[in-house]
Amino acid sequence: GVELVESGGGSLQAGGSLSLSCKFSGYPYCLAWFRQSPGMEREGVAFIDGVDYAQYEDSVKGRFTISKDDPLNTLFLDVNNAKPEDTAMYYCAARVGYFEVCPRRQDMYQNWGQGTQVTVSS
Fold first, then answer.
1. What is the pLDDT of residues 10-44, one digit of tens each?
2. 20 burial level (CB within 10 Å; 0-12, 13-18, 19+)
3. 105 with 68: CB under 8 angstroms?
């Protein structure tokens, strides 16, 4: 299987920036960042596939950037112009096996990290 370990969460002011990292093992094809706030459903925010095609949830487009460094087996999420509504536990997720367009549903991802908290204050 694929193991995932996130790091880089923390607290920041609205308008600030922060970068999350996720070290992964194995050979996932789709990698994604999901987030979950208390009392809310887990939602996918950014997705990247084996040829570095990236997709974003509408509320983070233009502010978040997903990328990966395959030789280092590391997935990144750059958060810019952070908003209080970005406050959540952030999880990286992996799916093994080719998919023409990486899915956005959480049940399509087999492997998950433990999560890292991001808190944005106004």
1. 999 999 999 999 999 999 999 999 999 989 999 99
2. buried
3. no
